[in-house]
Specification:
Shape: globular
Structural class: mainly beta
Order of helices and strands: HEEEEEEHEEEEHEEEEEEEEEEEHEEE
Helix content: 10-25%
Number of strands: 24
Number of helices: 4
Strand content: 35-45%
CATH class: Mainly Beta
CATH architecture: 6 Propeller
Strand order of the largest sheet: 3-4-5-6-2-24-23-22
Number of domains: 1
Oligomer: single chain
Largest sheet: 8 strands, mixed
């Protein structure tokens, strides 16, 4: 086959290939955060008139973020942690989590944050597969989750391995539905519905459970990694998942977990000055609003290429046509 025919075939194939790629979200700004004592930003949520954050290294504090300057200041709000319920996790997973908490801090390993219209904050504990609700007054209580939640997740291949548990949480404004995201090996989505003060599975808790691997952006040079969720958000009757392997945000159906459309933030994350010396994507927190999304970075104490060691929040603009766009 001569060079002319090869060029023609490539030209015909390029639009098909490009159509399968995620559109790039426009970078707006970035904000280092001062005042999170242990670092390790793991959750973001807009509650009331401010953005709030949680660290997976602290068990009894939330942070209100003062965004009046480029560098944000975190203001601590402490609460009293009630005794942790038994959610049915295996003894081995619970013991490994307890030991890890002793050495690194953060026995609860809070890995997500959401908020309802009344200003209640919801934190998911990876170590205990439990959800803590913190009221605007600062009182805390564990939600009464369905007894079969963990059992159903494990039967679907999720929550079987230490440090691969619940990694994201989202609640609708009325606090009638609550979703949890399992991180990896297998990753998945679960949903519960509120009935008075308790939560129940309606037709089963598991919406999605999937294994497999997917490609990292070519610029990382890392090949494929296990599929992973690292954050979850709810906006205008859609779920949004933070997916750090391909560096993208995906819109999903709240009733099934099915993916509808994805957008990339790889250009933001992989800009030379923002790179960390790690083979993994380290975006851990997500909040979506009408104008864009906030993406929180858990740097695990690492400095990036420009020397920045503080937790970082990126602002990206909503895609052209908004988050409800068809393509």
């Amino acid at each position: 086959m001569n060079a002319r025919w090869i060029a023609l075939l490539l030209a015909l194939a390029t639009p098909v290939w490009a159509a399968g790629q995620s559109a790039e979200l426009e970078f707006v700004s970035e904000h280092p955060i001062e005042g999170i004592a242990q670092g390790n930003l793991s959750g973001l949520a807009w509650c009331g008139d401010a953005l709030w954050a949680v660290s997976d290294r602290e068990d009894n504090v939330l942070y209100r973020l003062d965004a009046s300057e480029t560098v944000w200041q975190a203001e601590a709000e402490r609460f009293e942690l009630p005794p942790v319920p038994n959610t049915g996790l295996s003894w081995g997973v619970r013991m490994r989590s307890a030991v890890a908490g002793l050495f690194r801090g953060g026995e609860m390993d809070f890995e997500g944050l959401s908020c309802d219209s009344l200003g209640n904050r919801y934190l998911v504990s990876e170590a205990h597969a439990a959800v803590l609700r913190v009221s605007p007054a600062g009182t805390a209580d564990w939600l009464k989750l369905p007894g079969g939640l963990v059992r159903q997740a494990r039967a679907s291949g999720m929550l079987l391995n230490f440090n691969a548990m619940f990694e994201g949480i989202a609640v609708d404004p009325g606090a009638d539905r609550l979703w949890l995201a399992a991180e990896h090996s297998r990753r998945g989505l679960m949903v519960m519905h509120r009935k008075q003060s308790a939560w129940q599975c309606t037709g089963g808790c598991v919406l999605l459970a999937e294994g497999g691997r997917e490609a990292t952006p070519a610029a990382m040079g890392e090949g494929e990694q296990p599929r992973r969720f690292s954050g979850l958000a709810f906006h205008k009757e859609k779920l949004f998942t933070l997916e750090p392997v391909p560096h993208q945000i995906c819109r999903r159906r709240p009733s099934t977990g099915a993916s509808e459309l994805c957008w990339s933030y790889a250009a933001t994350a992989l800009a030379e000055a923002r790179r960390y010396d790690t083979p993994f994507g380290n975006a851990e927190a997500l909040w979506v609003d009408e104008e864009g999304a906030w993406i929180g970075i858990d740097n695990n104490g690492l400095a990036r290429a420009d020397g920045e060691k503080r937790p970082i929040v990126w602002r990206v603009a909503a895609p052209k046509g908004g988050w409800g766009a068809k393509k």
